[in-house]
Amino acid sequence: MSSLRSICLLRLSAIGDTCNAAAVVYAIRKHYPDAEITWVIGKAEAALMAGMKGVNFVVFDKKQGLAAYRNLRHQLKGKRFDALLVMQVALRANLASLCISADRRIGYDRSKSKELHSLFINERIEPTDKPHVLDNFRQFQKALDIPLGPPAWRIPVTAEDNLWAKTQLDPTKNKHLVITPSASNLERNWLADRYAAVADYAISLGFAVYLCGGPSEHEQALAEKIQEHADQPLKNLVGRSNLKQLFALLGAADLVIAPDTGPAHMATAAGTPVIGLYAHSNPKRTGPYLWQRYVVDAYTPALQELRGETPEESSWGQRLKGRELMQNITTEQVTSMLIRCVQEQNL
Questions:
Q1: Which of 16, 77, 201, 229 has CB atoms 3.0–4.6 Å from 193's, for a disulfide?
Q2: Coil, helix or strand at residue 216
Q3: Residues 74-85 pLDDT 10s
Q4: Rounded Cα–Cα distance for residues 156 and 52 (Å)
Q5: Which of the following CATH numbers is that of domain 160-344: 3.40.50.2000, 3.40.50.1370, 3.40.50.12780, 1.20.1280.290?
Q6: DSSP label at 138?
């Protein structure tokens, strides 16, 4: 084992990606229990990860503009790390890495480098033939001589967060389905009437159904539309939880349905099965890591139709555009996957 005494990880956003990065952080903590670990992270993401044992969080608030870089430099003034993991190739993150002093500046392999990433590093991770974001993240721990065992996330929640989650659950039901219907990119959202039809079907199977999400107007509007289309009552918790409470609720649920959005990865980190609804990005790259078999995949056929490619032939980060793509996911596909989950997970 090498004598790494201080390690800095740079992954600012987004919620789903930082959930995946949390598994690497835990592996580092476990392998180097005496090392000082610092995570440079976005403001909302830090709120979710807060309380992680043995990790010093340095918040980079992109809304501050240039001041965010000055604050980062100030907070890390006089520190030099044995290793810096530059786990984000966006130019904002690359520039932020200039505020961090480190002997080893480890970044992505050439095939995944972009936005001048190569100029900010002096060492690269090994490429992997596995497409998932987490598998690529795990190459950073391999660069630190950490074995690639099964991932563990260990995102902490408080007793208060767990109590809040417990009090939201219908005490008359023993099966709980959480639907987090909205993504930050609106074209990734499924249709309100189809969400409602699946919710009604889940209720017929004995589930209590909860709608969850953030406080934005578009998330609340979608939840209201789903309620309007549903024949059965749904508990609407959209905008009524912080990220820690939402994480606790996802962990308390028996099943989650979500499009390509952060809560799908939060639920995975919390150990809850996820039915992912994907049409714009490759679910083998960005889907719920442990629950690939439960993804309803409209991406692969759309990629073949629009570009004449398979996911294996396409570039690693290839996304598809078009509000109509999520319409290719039918209610019947999702209810069939729901039945499969019920059977395989003994729900």
A1: 229
A2: coil
A3: 999 999 999 999
A4: 6
A5: 3.40.50.2000
A6: H
